[in-house]
Structure formats: C-alpha cells, structure tokens
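Typical record is below.
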Amino acid sequence: MASQTAFEQEVAQLIVDTLNLEDVTAGEIEPEDALFRDGLGLDSIDALELALAISRAYGVQIRSDDENNRQIFASLRALSAHIEANRAAS
C-alpha cells in the first residue's frame, strides 16, 4: 500500500468532491490503483467532469481527444504528476 504525497491527497480530494463520491474518502484512493474500470470505477463522463475541475483548480487543460488520456488518467499518481508538470504558476 503506497502512501499518497501531499499533492496526491489534494487531487484525491478534488476527485471525491467533484464526483460526489459517497463510498470512498480521499485517503482511500491508492496512488497506483486504476481510476477507471476495476479500480475506482470512473467512466468517461467522470473524466470530463474531472478535466473541467482540474482546469478550474490548476489551469491545466486536458482535452477529451488527447491521445495520452489513458496514461494521464491511469492512476491518482499519474494524474497528479501530469497536473504538477503542466499547471499554471500560482
């Protein structure tokens, strides 16, 4: 069981809040577990909602037709790393 970094905890909380996840807390999202299908169970509509929330919170644009979306949304760790690498300076 890998532990979340502070930023991963922040992104996990954004996921829980944005998608109104009632059965999971931010701390329960394993950094390396899949966000879709067998992992957290998110779907394509969730991805769109999450991309919009990420854009608002961090200034990072994730387009629905981005060929790298599978890798970007692979796990909490991958998503957090993508946001950190591309976020607007605060």
